[in-house]
Amino acid sequence: MVDYEDFLYSDFPHQETHPDRLATLSTLFGLSPAPPDRCRVLELGCGLGGNLIGLAVALPGSTFVGIDLSARQVAAGQEVISTLTLPNIELRAQDILDYAAHAGTGASGDGLFDYILCHGIYSWVPEPVQAAILHIMRRSLTQNGVGYISYNTLPGWHMRGMVRDLLRREAGEGTHTERLARARAFLSFLEHTPEQRSPAHAFLLSEVRLLGQLADEYLFYEHLCNENRPVYFRDFAAAAAAADLAYLGDAHQQSTLKTRMGEEALAALPSDDLIEQEQHLDHLDVRFFRRTLLCRKETKVVRDPGPAQLRTLFVSSWLTPEAEAADVHSEEPETFRGPGERGVSVHEPLLKAALWLLTERAPRGAPFLDLCTAAWAWVTGEKPEQAPLVAQEQLAGSVLDLVARGFAHLGLGVPAFVSLPGPFPETTSLVRLQATRGQSGCVNLRHESVEVDDLDRALLRRLDGTRGMEELLAAVLSDIAAEHYELQRLDDDNEKPLDDPGEIREIVEQRLRRLARSGFLQK
Question: Best exposed site among 20, 55, 238, 299 by fewest CB in 10 Å?
Answer without folding.
Answer: 238
